[in-house]
Design brief:
162 residues, alpha+beta, 4-stranded antiparallel beta sheet, 4 strands, 19% strand
């Protein structure tokens, strides 16, 4: 007669549910990485957008357009605003555009809401405030994130420099 092997039940060798347990451990880590990547990508997109908007506003500012009519600051802001609409929509909420000039190069006090005179330095600053997008990573970040783009250029001599 042959000896029969009696299978014994060994609970520590049972592998039923092991996959579910592995997924339970790995899924939060993968979701955190995915949400972090989304948050980082949006922040990078917002940063490059406001920097480009400030650059476009400063490029427009150095031309001196609107100097004679007195609406120069409004025209500078209007030049920078279309780029920020992709961030805030047509309402423009969360975006502020500031224009200032420096009469003595970049040193000294700035004159707010001024495009400056010929040969003076003009600065356009675009700020965008947004709340984090993702729930998991957003709870680790501040409730509001401010992204700033700033560009300084020297005005062209459209008139005699002072």
């Amino acid at each position: 007669m042959r000896a029969r092997r009696i299978s014994q039940y060994r609970p520590w060798r049972d592998e039923a549910g092991a996959s579910a347990l592995e997924v339970a451990f790995i899924l939060p880590v993968l979701l955190a990485m995915l949400f972090g990547l989304v948050e980082f990508g949006y922040n990078l997109f917002a940063r490059s957008t406001v920097e480009k908007a400030a650059q476009v506003g400063a490029r427009f500012a150095v031309t001196g357009e609107g100097f004679d009519t007195g609406n120069r600051v409004a025209l500078i802001k209007d030049a920078a605003r279309p780029l920020t609409q992709v961030l805030s929509g047509s309402t423009g909420t969360g975006v502020t555009i500031q224009v200032r000039s420096y009469p003595n190069g970049t040193s000294g006090a700035a004159t707010e809401d001024s495009g400056g005179d010929p040969c003076q330095t003009v600065e356009v600053q675009v700020d965008y405030r947004y709340a984090p997008l993702t729930p998991l990573v957003g709870s680790l970040l501040p409730p509001e994130i401010t992204v700033t783009g700033r560009e300084r250029m020297v005005n062209e001599p459209w008139a005699v420099c002072k």
